[in-house]
Amino acid sequence: MTNKLIIDGTNATMGRLGSYSAKQSLLGKQVIIVNANKVVIIGHKKDILSKYKILIKKGGSSQKGPKIIRTPERILKRVIRGMLPHKQYRGKKALNRIICYNEVPEEFKEVKKIHAGKEKRGKFISLKELVNLLKNE
Hints:
By secondary structure, the chain is of the alpha/beta class. The chain has helices spanning 14-26, 45-58, 72-82, 89-96, 127-136; strands at 4-8, 30-34, 40-42, 98-100, 114-115, 124-126. Strands 4-2-1-5 form a four-stranded parallel beta sheet. Strands 3-6 form a two-stranded antiparallel sheet. The longest helix has 14 residues, at 45-58. The mean pLDDT is 90.
């Protein structure tokens, strides 16, 4: 259990959480992120939404991609992938050590977690809200 980091993503900023998890994973620790749907992206809601809409519109062909993921835990893992050297062997291994969950699974309910976020003020959007807005489009 010493080599596992269990991080609660409630109110955590996506970029900061991603860089911390990427670094810990490169150091050889298994990183488990729970409550990924409560992770927030700082910024104006309409700017963030328009960025993701542009990515989806680029799209490409249905066979080749790029495939735009529309679930909170996969969006978070994709952000972390961008912070890892995922085309190298050590980056692939580090990415495999990262697991994201939308809720808290039964096995981690009683385990002590690292609380990554604090209450936010200002303009932000949660991943769950972003996904709901993207599905409505």
